[in-house]
Design brief:
Ribosomal Protein S5, domain 2; alpha+beta; homodimer; 6-stranded mixed beta sheet; globular
């Protein structure tokens, strides 16, 4: 036990991982092992910041997210794994906050768990390379396995860890316009929705099979930085993900009127030759992949539908980093 | 050839058939043989009216729908079948009109083809009982096989004809509130969308398999006039139909922002104990099954989302009838 470090605190920052090909559904045999392979980009500018210190002797984990204490059980498996690896039984005091809406389909759990995993690992004296942290962060939230990396990542089906596909500067012209259709927390967590889909959707098997078939083309389109080619595959992936959810019993529907307006706008823009390719996750928000040169136009067009909102514009961002 | 009847004209009226369990996809081996069984209600008050006469000697079919001449090839297979049955080669002059939006997902083709089939059959001296007309009307548009009947119908998978399940007065309290979200014609015909789903959706097989599994429960819920039980099954059916379309390549999406608002409103109403169960077809419109006693409230709530629209309220309606 390294009692000498008990007054230390570590702050880590991570950005959310936006899946271009979707992770939806878990395999048996481990915690958060994905049934489908995913490809993702880490979104610079959106940040989860976690400050981790040891808890006073003999007390358990205290977790405060955006100023509110959280039930510790969501964090326990990941924190226990870290304690196990470090052979250190102390509890943690964790304060985490996001500079973007939480639990609203903006992958805040990917960046949140990545930041906490990183800060706690460093506090414990464990290695903090993304390759080492990925399988640990995964235990907290599947997509956190990707968010520890910057740039572009691949998380194969069934894998304990994600891997880096391309570095953060691989595609400098790429932009992601994040339209926050509704900032409220989602009605059903992605964890619960995935499980309901697996359990009750007659399309789940086909979803898993088909997602594997999309992977090779997705990797190729990304390697070529071909936004149109990638966009077509992205749409297949997210539409099939949502199709598998609609078929669940009860049907799961994260879309809101504004989501549809945003995605129909993208369709219209593409009809006018503008590369604007949307994707969505477990929530009503819409993320539009476009090129730097089209961002202004996309924002202008969005203005008509969302006069009171200013979308975030993200570039491919860095992975986990520490704040001294 | 019955030349003596050449100055006669017949007018028939039919109402659209709203599927509660959906027909989506065709089997091989015939024209419009459904891959999935459907259960439907014929919607009183919405009417297609067809006036049919023989064309002048030696001229082909002339078809005018809502005042506009139509390419005759959509009607040819059904009209040829009628001519074949009657051993009469004459062409028809057909004028058809709807008192509700056409080709916008309100099943106007079901009522339109049913009315034309009926009027032409009578003109030709053929039998006009729904049982006789159903397999003929089906050739024009699958769901027309149901629309020749009033009340509640069943159209089994692969069947040449629909059959009557319950008469028009079986469930007098049932109402269908038809919200015309957008009156424009749909972007892709249901015929083309079905075919694209069959050809390219990885969920199509599961859709067909699952639709068969829903049938028994659907028939039972309808027999019991249990709106809640029926509503749950209806939602499964239409959500899975749309899920199979989202997964097509390219994705097929008929929903518009207003569609989502209407269906989320139904969810909210159900949360307040009001029986309001929506369904949708190939188009953005939303049809809400409710009870007579709740219609006023449903209309009031819809008013907030659709201030400029007055939804139609239909009851179970009669089948094909003739106007003297």
């Amino acid at each position: 036990m390294k009692r000498e470090s008990s007054t230390q605190e570590i702050t880590a920052v991570a950005s959310p991982s936006l899946a271009l090909l979707k992770y939806w559904g878990k395999q048996d045999g481990g915690i958060n092992l994905p049934a489908t392979p995913s490809i993702a980009v880490t979104l610079g500018g959106l940040e989860s910041r976690a400050r981790v210190a040891f808890a006073p002797d003999g007390t358990g984990d205290l977790i405060i997210l955006n100023g509110r204490e959280q039930p510790p059980h969501h964090f326990a498996p990941m924190l226990n794994e870290l304690r196990h690896l470090a052979r250190d039984e102390r509890g943690f005091v964790i304060e985490s906050s996001n500079n973007f809406p939480t639990a609203a389909g903006l992958a805040s759990s990917s960046s949140g768990f990545a930041a906490v995993a990183g800060a706690a690992a460093r506090l414990l004296g464990l290695p903090t390379e993304p390759e080492q942290l990925s399988p640990i962060a995964r235990i907290g939230s599947g997509s956190a396995a990707r968010a520890v990396f910057g740039g572009f990542t691949l998380w194969p089906a069934g894998a304990l860890s994600a891997t880096a596909l391309h570095p953060v500067d691989f595609w400098p012209e790429l932009r992601v316009v994040v339209v926050t259709v509704s900032a409220g927390a989602k009605s059903i967590s992605s964890r619960a929705a995935m499980e309901a889909t697996r359990r009750s959707s007659p399309y789940y098997e086909a979803w898993v099979r088909d997602a594997a078939a999309l992977l090779e083309d997705g990797i190729e389109a990304l390697a070529e930085r071909d936004l149109e080619k990638l966009g077509v595959i992205m749409r297949r992936s997210y539409m099939r993900m949502f199709g598998s959810m609609l078929a669940a019993d009860d049907p799961i529907l994260y879309w809101r009127a504004g989501s549809l307006n945003a995605l129909l706008l993208c369709e219209e823009l593409r009809g006018r030759g503008i590369q604007a390719w949307e994707t969505m996750d477990a929530g009503p928000q819409v993320k539009i992949l476009t090129e730097e040169s089209s961002v202004e136009l996309v924002l202008e067009e969005l203005q008509a539908y969302f006069p009171e909102k200013t979308p975030l514009v993200a570039s491919p961002g860095p992975g986990l980093r520490f704040v001294d």
